[in-house]
Design a protein that fits this description.
This protein has helices at about 10-55, 60-85, 95-155, 155-175, 190-235, 240-260, 265-275, 290-320, 335-340, 350-380, 390-410. It has about 425 residues and is mainly alpha-helical. It folds into 2 domains: about 10-85 and about 345-395, no CATH class; about 125-335, Ferritin (Up-down Bundle), CATH 1.20.1260. It is rod-shaped. The protein starts with 8 loop residues before the first helix and ends in a 23-residue tail after the last helix.
Length: about 425
């Protein structure tokens, strides 16, 4: 305990408080260096795992490079925080504190840049890559469904074509019975109507042949998607699964392209444009001039109706063609470290752990700074001799006794011998 005989009661309590804190710090200091070394070593191990995931080559040189980098990180972390633990609590001036605080901030950023993100890659790298695979599957699924939707909409144009075809067939039947131009039979008007109905029937058949192809491509695409989903959750190394996932992605991209090519919207649009533009007018076969005039008038009306139907069919095809195409999706293999950064929001706990293992000593720095400040506050107003403990007083008295004993045991200085000849002669003069 300290000698507090010359102190006030408050000052004595402060000295005892400071002495108690110093005792705690002395005990904590016995293993603080070891704890800091363990933290630095653990960070170096996870850094090694993160660096290894970035290196493509698995040879001896790559392993040596990863070990060298992780050792450098461990040493850097240990040295940096050792400086901070010793110097930051010891400085007193505000300017020095701010300077060291800035240096600690820069050092922490450097540690995060060279170590923490690699630690996060080691902690959550495989899960982040699986997250990337799952996100890619969703993108491909959206593209496949959109391509299938557009293809089905194009196949729906078959009903529009069938409706126009049926209208021309009905008109031809009316012409055959004489209810259209007033002339029963299969004359010029009938031939024009049948010509366009035949063209539309051929287009309708061509569209119908695409339906099984569209359905088959969609089934095949769903099978590829199912396999890709299974690969995202299967056990085993994610690198091996990524290889097969890439193969399935290439296959699925081809299926999506095939679905886009199976869309008949462009075909129907061109057919609608040709419907009214390419009409082969037969020779009017009426027996009289009046009959031929009626046929010409009816054909003109038919051509107007044909143009209207063609315009309607063309607009329907253009509406399908104007649908937003599926997004271009490409699977890009990604490393564990890049995946952790890309999907950082999904792995906040892993990032927190990776950063905490590197920056936890910062908390110890602040604890030491606060404790040292409390010790200095407790010693304010007390002289040095008032803060000495009994053990320190005994040590001081022992040192003084040893010094006195040493001085007593030393031989006295040799008296200087003088020669009578060297003694100056003094002549006395009497006063006159």
């Amino acid at each position: 305990m300290a000698d507090t005989s010359n102190l006030t009661e408050a000052e004595a309590r402060g000295v005892r408080y400071a002495r108690e804190l110093e005792g705690h710090l002395g005990w904590l200091d016995t293993f603080s260096g070891t704890a800091l070394g363990v933290l630095a070593t653990a960070s170096g191990i996870y850094t090694y795992l993160g660096v290894s995931s970035l290196l493509d080559d698995n040879g001896a040189m790559s392993a040596f490079a990863a070990i060298a980098y992780s050792v450098a990180v461990s040493v850097g972390i240990f040295v940096f925080w050792s400086y901070m633990l010793r110097l930051f609590p010891a400085v007193r001036g505000a300017r020095a504190r701010i300077g060291l605080l800035g240096a600690m901030g820069l050092g922490s950023l450097a540690i995060i840049a060279m170590s923490s993100w690699l630690n996060a890659a080691a902690l959550a790298g495989s899960a982040a890559v699986e997250q990337h695979l799952a996100e890619t599957v969703q993108d491909y699924q959206g593209s496949l469904e959109r391509a299938h939707e557009i293809a089905l909409s194009a196949q729906g144009l078959e009903r529009d074509v069938a409706r126009v075809r049926q209208s021309f067939e009905d008109l031809s039947e009316q012409e055959a019975t004489g209810n259209l131009s007033g002339l029963a039979g299969r004359g010029a008007v009938f031939k024009v109507l049948r010509q366009k109905a035949s063209e539309l029937a051929g287009l309708e058949a061509q569209i119908a042949t695409q339906t099984p192809l569209v359905d088959g491509a969609f089934v095949e695409g769903n099978a590829a998607l199912s396999r890709m989903r299974a690969l995202t959750v299967e056990p085993g190394p994610v690198e091996a699964r990524s290889v097969e996932f890439s193969e399935q992605a290439v296959r699925l991209a081809g299926i999506i392209t095939q679905l886009r090519q199976l869309s008949v919207a462009a075909l129907v649009e061109r057919a609608a444009q040709d419907l009214s533009a390419s009409v082969v007018l037969p020779e009017l076969d009426g027996r009289s001039e009046a009959t031929r005039g009626d046929q010409a008038a009816t054909i003109t009306s038919v051509l107007e109706v044909l143009a209207q139907r063609a315009t309607t069919l063309e607009r329907a095809a253009q509406a399908v063609a104007a649908m937003t195409p599926p997004a271009d999706t490409t699977y890009t293999p990604i490393s564990a470290a890049d995946a952790v950064i890309l999907y950082a929001r999904n792995f906040v706990p892993s990032w927190a752990g990776a950063i905490a293992i590197d920056l936890l000593p910062a908390v110890l720095v602040f604890i030491l700074a606060i404790t040292q400040g409390a010790i200095r506050t407790g010693r304010e107003g007390a002289a040095v001799e008032d803060t000495l403990t009994i053990a320190e007083l005994r040590a001081a008295l022992q040192a003084m006794r040893e010094m006195e004993a040493t001085m007593t045991a030393a031989p006295p200085a040799a008296a200087r011998k003088t020669d009578p000849e060297d003694t100056p002669q003094v002549t006395a003069f009497k006063a006159p």
